[in-house]
Amino acid sequence: MSSDPMKASDLRFTLCTEDDDDIICIDQKQSLFSQAFASLNDLRCNGQLCDIVLLMEGRKISAHKVVLAASIPYFRVMFTTEMLEANQTEVVLQELRISAGNVQSIMIGANFLQLDGVAEKCAEYLQTRLHPSNALAIRAFCSALGCRSVVAAADRFVQKHFVSVCR
Fold it and tell me: What is the longest distance spanned by two Cα atoms in the chain?
């Protein structure tokens, strides 16, 4: 929709309605959020405005530090403190140690960066730690990420331990 805003602002008209309920609402926050991340991903995929290259699993992944830092706590610490990586243009991500404290962040990051091997290791980690106190939360988390293997494992776990899960 290309136009001349100055000409459009000079025009006046009346709509043929007297209904006060004739209103539409636009959720700008959600729309802008979705558009911004889609645009950032397009820029990343095209290698535009990227300020960091991640080297992992034999792959080079161009990225935006600000997006990584905003999305993944691990990168926030890496890029906002006096760590060596804060000023580098390439970062080698070596051995990852998955723990209860970081598995969610790592899995989100792995999905975001399409590191399937890392995401699978996180999925395996979560499957072996299903418990009546966390099975539903793990299922919801993995469902949001599209990790079917953990969702299926959680479903089986809940069916097998239904009474304990309900407590």
Answer: 69
